[in-house]
Amino acid sequence: MNVQALLVEILTEELPPLSLAHLSESFGNALWDGLAAQEFLSPECSMTIYATPRRLAVFLSSVRDKQPDQMLARKGPSVKSGYDASGQPTQALIGFARSIGVDPSDLEQEDDSKGRYFVARIVQHGQMLDVVLAGTVSEALKKLPIPRLMRWGENTYYFVRPVHGLVMLFGDKIVQGSVLGQSSGRSTWGHRYMGEGLINISDASSYESELDEKGKVIASFARRRSLIVSQLEALALEQKARVFGDSLVSGKSSKNNVSLSSKAAECLGGDGLLDEVTALVEHPKAYLGHFEGEYLNIPAECLALTMKQNQKYFPLVDQSGKLLPQFIMVANLEPGDGSRIVHGNERVLRARLSDARFFFEQDRKRKLEGRVQELQGVVYHNKLGSMLDRVLRLQTLTGKFAREFSADKTLVQRAAWLSKADLVTGMVGEFPELQGVMGAYYALCDSEEPRVAQAIEEHYHPRFAGDDLPVSSEGACLALADKLDMLVGFFSIGFIPTGDKDPFGLRRHAIGVLRILVEMSFQVPLPYLLECAVAAYHSARPSLVSELYDFLIERLKFYLRDRGYASDEIDAVTVISPSRLDQLPQKLAALQKFRQMPQSQALAVANKRIQNLLSKSAGIIELKQPESTAFLEPAEINLYAALIRIKPMVEELVMAQDWTGALVSMASIRPHVDQFFDEVMVMVDDILLRENRLRLLAALSGLFNQVADISRLAS
How many domains are contained in the chain? Predict the structure, then answer.
């Protein structure tokens, strides 16, 4: 058996840059899995994945040229039916032996649950790599996450882009085969302008070095990315600046229009732009460019998005995070003199920035107030009315919520009225990512109250995982109203997220609601908020409040798990249908302290027993307090006395939201609980006695459940 390196390369037209890294990783994993399942990979095999704008390639360091032989056991007829009365083989046994090519006397016998039977041991010889490789590659390509396929020429093959070449090398030998209409070989293409053209790869192990030296193509995505990063950092350092990215944002927008907001950070996130640019070039070379300082009068977010989205440039900021009139471009070419590249890109950017300035200046000619009625013509959803209908609902909700969130009712309702007006501006039409941000700028230009402008921007927060929460009370109030209105609206027309389908991002909006309530510590009951939001839709079904509550509690479990809480602790605080979500972090902290106490495990076990007894008696016992005079056994009398003694103390601690103190107080009852279960039979024949004991247990369970259902804690 021969073991050597294997290279597979698919040469294509330019692949989608935003999905290149994912495509290459998926291709590598699928090819690995396919060959591993057929036992072609040796134990020491490692994989290297390559991806450039025009190729997907996989290098496997140690591959067998032939599958290992396998010893297979083939089951035959039973021993009883294998021989006749005279001891001669039956036709069934003779036929089975003939199909294997052996004499009946050479067959072995084995036992199973049904009796003894004949078995034949046969050797299945492994297939050769050149027989199965093309098919395995084809199957791997079919598994790639490609939303849209295309067909090219007159063939019947489909792929994400037209395929123009196939390399399959085992060591220095070509593995013959055909994939997507291309016959395998050793030839690939280098850089369109800097390489030698068609390159013959001598062997699989020299693929990366030969493509680099002869073709001027850096095949490794990670290596190109690292090279771009080092070039960006070097050029920025020369200017005593920094490349803009999420970690470099200094704060929110300010009226001087030169501070980048977190909204621009989302759109211009370093990794996203960096990965996209890495996927666009085969031989990166970074250059510094400039634009006129007069353009800094435009909001910095507009400039940043123009550079990123339209041109794929990296803006530069100073040490305080303010945008500079400089940028870095990454070309797919390295000529002797890069000045023509720089001047050409500066000219293109200048035109883009002029467009942005035009939008900004034109938008400011009309006040936001004058644009609100235009929202009547903007469809929110064909079953949910116009965007103006939505604005009116937001006004109603913020009016109801204002006092609960300590927000100025007049200001927050004004912000709600203007919150969507920027959707009909030219700048947001060009850059939808800036909705809310531009609304805040235009509100300030219209001399609106600064808190109104701030709420307009903040009402989209948080927009993604880890995003900032609103800072102002008005912003939080409007953000919550906006997200709840969206959840209620789409739930009411049946757009409930299932599986991986969530076209309107309702899970994300749900997490936003939860984060605002929990992390900003608003003391507002969730059911009240849902009832208000549902009431704004007059035709909503009555069950919608409970449906949305259940949906939010499920998202809450994921949210709390991401924050590091254990699953059983989360179950313990959520199973009791919490109303005030702001209390949950303190309850969870108290629960974590409680479970460190020596009494906690015994009480958790006892509570599980209590819950089991109560669940079996659901609907039998009346919801009233136990009768002290009906107890007979000392253990139940003692437990009841202990319950009466600690109940006022626990309730006082719960009222004070001292959850730890409440649980510690309840832990003192443990000896009486142990004694009760050791000495008292609950499910006795006497109905009155049984029900009274069940009421005692129900009272005890209710006391514990004011903090959490400790029966949910795992041992």
Answer: 5
- pLDDT tens-digit readout, 191-237: 999 998 899 999 999 999 999 999 999 999 999 999 999 999 999 99
- Within this chain, do residues 349 and 436 fall inside the same structural domain, yes or no? no
Tell me: do 426 and 557 sit in the same domain.
Answer: yes
Q: What amino acid occupies position 269?
A: G
What does the pLDDT read at residue 686?
87
- If asked whether residues 555 and 596 sit together in one domain, one would say no
Q: Which residues pair with 71 in a beta bridge?
A: 123
The mean per-residue pLDDT over the stretch 139-160 comes to: 91
pLDDT for residue 154: 83
* 178 class by beta-carbon count within 10 Å (0-12 exposed, 13-18 middle, 19+ buried): middle
Rounded distance between C-alpha atoms, residue 490 and residue 71, angstroms: 59
| CA distance readout (Å), 468 to 272, 316, 461 | 19, 23, 7
Q: Quick one: which H or E segment has residue 72? A: strand 70-78
Q: For residue 641, give the CATH number of its domain.
A: 1.10.730
Q: Say whether pLDDT at 16 is over 90.
A: yes
Listed residue (596, 589, 554, 559) closest to 574, CA to CA = 554
Q: Tokens for 430, please give them.
A: 């060009």
Q: What angle do CA 152, 157, 159 make, to 5 degrees?
A: 75
Q: What is the pLDDT of residue 271?
A: 60
Q: Give the residue-averaged pLDDT of 690-706.
A: 87
User: Is it the case that residue 622 has pLDDT exceeding 90?
Assistant: no
DSSP state of 158: E
Q: How many CB atoms lie within 10 A of CB 233?
A: 14
The b/e string for 519-549 (b: 16+ C-beta within 10 A; e otherwise) is ebebebebeebbebbbebbeebeeebbebbb
| 623 and 636 co-located in one domain | yes
Alpha carbon distance 168, 132 (integer Å): 12
The three-state secondary structure class of 380 is: strand
Residue with tokens 């209590």: 610
Q: What is the pLDDT of residue 259?
A: 40
The confidence score (pLDDT) of residue 106 equals 75
Instruction: Check pLDDT > 90 for residue 254.
Output: no
CATH number of the domain within which 537 lies: 1.10.3210
The neighbour count for residue 655, using CB atoms within 10 Å, is: 10
pLDDT at 208: 96
Q: pLDDT of 154-185, one tens digit each?
A: 888 999 999 999 999 999 999 999 999 999 99
Token pair recorded at residue 70: 């396998």
C-beta of residue 249 within 8 angstroms of C-beta of residue 321: yes
Distance (Å) of CA 700 to CA 494, 590, 640, 660, 663? 41, 19, 9, 18, 13
SS (H, E, C) 175-238: CCCEECCEECECEEECCCCCCCCEEECCCHHHHHHHHHHCCCCCCCHHHHHHHHHHHHHHHHHH
Same domain, 59 and 102: no
In terms of domains, do 230 and 197 share one? no
Kindly state the average pLDDT of the residues 648-665.
91
Q: What is the pTM of this model?
A: 0.79
Q: Which domain holds residue 100?
A: 70-124
478-495 per-position pLDDT tens digit: 999 999 999 999 999 999
139 and 242 part of one domain: no
Q: Are 388 and 376 in contact (CB under 8 A)?
A: yes
The CA-CA-CA angle for residues 349, 354, 359, to 5°, reads 125
User: Is the domain of 357 the same as that of 460?
Assistant: no
Rounded CA-CA distance 484/125 in Å is: 64
d(CA 207, CA 172): 11
Report CA 389 to chain centroid distance, whole Å: 32
